Structure formats: structure tokens, C-alpha cells
């Protein structure tokens, strides 16, 4: 089949174009490097151009190898046709460590620049300690001013086209906006029909920040996952009526909410299915049903169970009670 075209959203003051559907590489356990590399090549052939990684995922190097191979094989005309996101891990979220961290990511990815660099979580941990889950005693409060200033430096140096944050609550996002010279372009957070992030979405929209959803399908199969989306009666009824899958309805809902999304799959058939959400739409009534008839519930633990002792308490603290 010919490659599908994914719509773009313009992000940041430079209006850099970001494909609304990204290929996520976070998995527990991490994917085998050869599997990831082949899946990325398959994804590019299908039409994916946006790839999301992090040092935490242990996927930067195989992703970089796959992207280099895609360019050399002519699957894309040049690097500029690809959109690559990586993130600043908690152990590097300190003054003096941000620029070296992005430089390591670029080396791993074999790239000269990132399209988007995000602060992965709004907490810091002891420098040099990359053990995961993070030990309780290793957490440190983030010096937002120092870290964001160095994120801005990454953009000024041309190491990142755009900068942003991930897992930031309304309160924490407003704090970054109050100190920023260059405001964040993106906030990547958990968002799905069972956790719709209405308050955060409105804030981001009012500030010109693009919201990117992860776990839009519930991250089934991961230790932090939930079956609540794929087993939703409301989503199933809508999917059956439209001749679509529950996953496609969930993703189409996110698209019609005006957000971008990062979705993970390592099977070619599912990758192809996930692309088939742009040539049909949900009715106003269907959108209303999803908005009002599905119980709201965070995926407790998220991508990081921030504390092994008490994940719910620590997530509440991170989200300033917005949980």
C-alpha cells in the first residue's frame, strides 16, 4: 500500500509542523532493538513520520539506527521529513546538566537536532542515578527556573527546534509560563476517553500550547495499563455502529478534541489500523456520549510509579490534587 498522510499541527512561535499521530517507543519491558528497528522502518513505509522516545525508554539508539537507515534507503527524502521527540530524564533535570543531556540523546539518535525536547516529569532526582523506578530517597524538588532556562538554551543553540514539558498539571504549567522567555510548545500527558483532561486542555488551548496524549488506548499489556478503554461499552457501541475498532474510535475522539497523540504498537497490522482515523468522523452525539457517559479514572501509576511506597499519594502531589 502507498504511504498514508498524517495531518500536522503547527507548534511554537516558529510554527514547526508536528504530525498529530506519533509512534511511541515506551514499553515495559523495552522492545528488543532489532524488533524496534524493523517496526520503525515498517511504520515509515506506512506513513508515520513522528517518533517519540526518551533515555528512560532505552530506545534512542535503535530508533536512531532505524531513522538513519530510512534516509539511506530513500524511504524519506531527508531528515527534515521526520519529527523526533525525546525527553529530559529526572536525573538530568538540574542546572548545568540539561544541555549535556540533550547532546547525549542526539548522539544516541545520530541526529544534529531534535524537533521537540520535553521535560519528562516535573520532578528531579539525584544526578547520575538512572535506576528505575526512582528510589524514594532520590527524589528532589525541581529548580524550574534553572531547568527551563537551560531548555531555552537548547533551542537557542539549535539542538531542539521546539521545547516543552510532559506530565505537567495546570498549576505547574502556569508556573513555567510565568518564568519562561520561550514558552513551552507542547505538554504531553496521559489523556484518553477515561481521563479527558478537560481543565488542562482548556488552559493549553488558551496559551497556544499543543496537548499531546499518551495512553490514549489505555496501555494494555504494560504494568501501568488499564482495560477500561478497550472494554468500554460506550466505545464498543460506537465502534460497531461505524464499522471501526474501539482503538480507532478512541484515537478519533482525541483527534477531534484537537490534540496530538503518541500511540505504541509493534505489529504492522495494528500500525496500519491506527493510521485509518482521518477519513471519517464522530457525530456530535457520539462525541457527547464519550464526554458524558464514560467514568473518569486516571491510570494510576502512569508511566512512572513515582514512588514504590505510595504511587497514588505521589501522583496526587505531582498533579497538585488534580487526580
UniProtKB/TrEMBL annotation:
Keyword line: NADP
UniProt-listed Pfam families: Aldo_ket_red (PF00248)
NADP-dependent oxidoreductase domain: residues covered: 21-291
CDD domains linked: AKR_AKR4A_4B (cd19124)
Lowers pKa of active site Tyr (site feature) positions: 87
InterPro entries, per the entry: AKR, AKR4A/B, Aldo/ket_reductase_CS, NAD(P)_OxRdtase_dom_sf, NADP_OxRdtase_dom
Gene Ontology BP terms: alkaloid biosynthetic process
Binding site for substrate: 120
Domain of life, per lineage: Eukaryota
Similarity comment: Belongs to the aldo/keto reductase family.
Protein name: Aldo-keto reductase
Organism per entry: Brassica rapa subsp. chinensis (Pak-choi)
Amino acid at each position: 500500500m502507498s504511504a498514508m498522510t498524517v495531518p500536522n499541527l503547527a507548534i511554537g512561535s516558529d510554527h514547526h509542523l508536528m504530525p498529530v499521530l506519533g509512534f511511541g517507543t515506551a514499553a515495559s519491558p523495552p522492545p528488543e532493538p532489532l524488533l524496534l528497528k524493523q517496526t520503525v522502518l515498517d511504520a515509515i513505509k506506512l506513513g508515520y513520520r513522528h517518533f517519540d522516545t526518551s533515555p528512560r525508554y532505552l530506545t534512542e539508539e535503535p530508533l536512531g539506527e532505524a531513522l538513519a537507515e530510512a534516509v539511506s534507503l530513500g524511504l524519506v527524502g531527508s531528515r527534515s521529513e521526520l519529527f523526533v521527540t525525546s525527553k529530559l530524564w529526572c536525573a538530568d533535570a538540574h542546572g548545568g546538566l540539561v544541555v549535556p543531556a540533550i547532546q547525549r540523546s542526539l548522539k544516541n539518535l545520530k541526529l544534529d537536532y531534535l524537533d521537540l525536547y520535553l521535560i519528562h516529569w516535573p520532578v528531579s532526582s539525584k544526578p547520575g542515578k538512572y535506576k528505575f523506578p526512582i528510589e524514594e530517597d532520590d527524589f528532589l524538588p525541581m529548580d524550574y527556573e534553572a531547568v527551563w532556562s537551560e531548555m531555552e538554551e537548547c533551542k537557542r543553540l539549535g539542538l531542539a527546534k521546539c521545547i516543552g514539558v510532559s506530565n505537567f498539571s495546570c498549576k505547574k504549567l502556569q508556573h513555567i509560563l510565568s518564568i519562561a522567555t520561550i514558552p513551552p510548545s507542547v505538554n504531553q500527558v496521559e489523556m484518553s476517553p477515561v481521563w479527558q483532561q478537560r481543565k488542562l486542555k482548556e488552559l493549553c488551548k488558551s496559551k497556544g500550547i499543543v496537548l499531546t496524549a499518551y495512553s490514549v488506548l489505555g496501555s494494555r499489556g504494560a504494568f501501568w495499563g488499564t482495560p477500561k478503554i478497550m472494554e468500554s461499552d460506550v466505545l464498543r457501541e460506537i465502534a460497531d455502529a461505524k464499522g471501526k475498532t474501539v482503538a480507532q474510535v478512541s484515537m478519533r475522539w482525541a483527534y477531534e478534541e484537537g490534540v496530538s497523540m503518541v500511540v505504541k504498537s509493534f505489529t504492522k497490522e495494528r500500525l496500519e489500523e491506527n493510521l485509518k482515523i482521518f477519513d471519517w468522523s464522530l457525530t456530535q452525539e457520539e462525541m457527547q456520549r464519550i464526554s458524558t457517559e464514560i467514568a473518569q479514572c486516571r491510570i494510576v501509576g502512569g508511566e512512572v510509579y513515582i514512588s514504590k511506597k505510595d504511587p497514588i499519594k505521589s501522583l496526587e502531589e505531582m498533579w497538585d490534587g488534580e487526580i
